[in-house]
Amino acid sequence: MMNFKTQFLVLLTISVFLLSGCEVYQTLYGTTPQTAPVAAQVVRVEGEQAKDVANLAKQVYGAAAPTQHDPFKVGQNPLGPFEKGKGLGFTLQQWLAASGIGIYSVDGQNAELELSLKNLVPNGIYTVWCSSSSFPPNFSVVDKPCGAEDGSENSLKADEKGNGQFSLKVKALEQSTKEKATIIALAYHSDGKTYGSSPGDFGTNTHVQIFFLLPIQTEEQAKYQIPIKFVNHIDAGLPEQDVFIEHIAPQEEAPKEEMKAEEPAMEKPEEQAKGEKEETVKVEERPKEKELVEEKPREKPIVVVVQETDLVSLTPKAEDPDKETNLVFTFTSPLNEKGEWQTNYGDAGEYTITVTASDSETTTSRDVLIIVNKKEESPAIDSAKPIESGLTIDETQSIEFSAVASDLNKDILAYSWKLDGVDVGTDSKYSYQSTYDDAGTHTVKVEVSDGLSSASKIWSVDVGNVNRKPALEKMEDINIKETDKIVVTALATDDDKDKITYSVSDKKFAQEDNVFTWQTDYESAGTYQITVSASDGQDTTSQEFTVTVANVNRAPLITDIVQKS
């Protein structure tokens, strides 16, 4: 019975079985796909066969018709041969070089998928699939495009170097269990098409390159992250499923058929002499045919594998039957006359060089395949402004930020600016404009990424409060008569939500909060300039208005009457 780890590896492949397939095509090195003869055949590779240097250097093909996945070789024809389809334009080694990492972040019912991919088919069209599958004996698979169910969100295109980025907000995927698991798979479409909610036909136009199984969560958590590292079929211990190499028939079959065809037929007595003559001719010719069959086997290519920045230093050895000791070796570029090459960042790739040995009269040559693997280095922020990490401004003021970064791998760099954790920019510069609501401490962060690793710098910005004056409504002039009562109501607002206090310039008015009253009398006639003010404790706003009190004539008052003497 398979253990759980084996079950997961099994599911990794089975989960992508039902993704079925997808001629605008860009190859890893500009090779144009070739259409194979109809009669030719191809096979799947597995195990040590897939790691053999000669097989890794072979071109890969699609199948002429969709091929059923059989990673556990339980069918009658698990590895082929199958009828040969179109050439895909790259080698098995280039196909297996694809890799990817990422983060799957879950926050309650919502999640985000962020992937960084390398060594894909340059300018290739890909789709990302989030599949779920139950384990045998009740095996079933449900294939779904990541994101929208119609497949409108799950496609991506690799750049000219074969790098790809994929970021998508999704609903949280179903968690893996011992009975059921969730798989994230990356499918390449060699016809340059995507098929919505269906992946397409496997083996012909759709080819799963790498995949990842979500592990079981041992604890119930509403918020967590899972690091993603993709794997291909071979590294998972399974046969490659969707790309194929040419099938080579056993060599001994052809010679046997030829010999059988040449065996003389039974002859009549009167034709025996003629037959003996013919037989003599055949016997003489057979050694020549044998020489043709016994061709000298091709030498396996010499392969040297290094990393960027490593020194390639070849020391050839040769033997001369004439016992010449002064053999001279020469090397083609990029090696120098000593057979050395100091690689640098950006030199990743495959280089075929020729080593020639000469005894001054004759020469012999041998090709060497130098594979320079990329040495991943994190980008570096060379300079950033402002230089100070702690900054202070007042509300409504602004600060200009900038960063200059470099990458030893010569990768394309992406900038990301965050203000208090929220994305605010993707250029190398960012301007922070504060507002009246920004009093307090804020963080500005720039992150520079090459797709796999990143560098960052953080600034702290203390924004000081800038008080805004209260706004007091305009006061209208007042005209009244003596003995009338004046009621003035002051109305003010404050954008800072500060508490407002009111005041009036003339003590004749009685105050109750923002309401001022004055009961005039017969002695109040005149004109008065009144000022009402509103204050937030720091600043004061005032409005001036005129109060005119008209005189009211009073009838004479007879105070006394006396007898005139």
Structural write-up:
The protein is mostly beta strands. Helices cover 9% and strands 40% of the residues. The strands form ten sheets. Strands 6, 7, 8, 10 and 11 form a five-stranded antiparallel sheet that branches. Strands 21-27-26-23-24 form a five-stranded mixed sheet, with no helix packed on it. The chain has a four-stranded antiparallel sheet with strand order 2-3-1-13. Strand 23 (414-419) and strand 24 (422-425) form a beta hairpin. It is elongated. The termini are far apart. The relative contact order is 0.09. The model is unreliable at 1-39 and 251-298 (pLDDT under 50).
CATH homologous superfamily (4th level) name of the largest domain? Superoxide dismutase, copper/zinc binding domain
Q: Roughly how many Å apart are the termini?
A: 148 Å
Which bin fits the share of residues in helices?
under 10%
Low-confidence stretches: 1-39, 251-298
Work out the strand percent: 35-45%
Strands, total number: 36
